[in-house]
């Protein structure tokens, strides 16, 4: 073992407990904030519920339910696209690290990185555009908050 390797090993051994304490003190509590951004539990909004006592439909479907359905579908698609992009990025990283200087495999990994980044960008830009359109369709009165 060279002197540089021994020094790096010693530095990592000193730094690892500090990083673990930092992770457990600050990293794990942040996971509790992830519960606020979960996908909707019901994809299709509940409307046109049959009331057996009055023999009528309660809560008839309207424009608000259509907008809510579109928003739920959009959110669901983004919640599917982001983990798939993360898996594709991980696969490209694995290909890149296991290339061992093979230019064909390195260019394949670069292509996957580029295609996934472009695809994720398109998904997020489309989500932003459709989300703004849905907000404009669902909002009564002035859509611009400054004008209210």
UniProtKB/TrEMBL annotation:
InterPro entries: T4SS_pilin. Keywords: Membrane, Transmembrane, Transmembrane helix. The keyword Membrane applies. It comes from the Bacteria. The keyword Membrane applies. The chain crosses the membrane at residues 73-97, 109-130. This is Uncharacterized protein. It comes from Candidatus Taylorbacteria bacterium RIFCSPHIGHO2_02_FULL_46_13. The lineage of its organism: Bacteria, Candidatus Tayloriibacteriota.
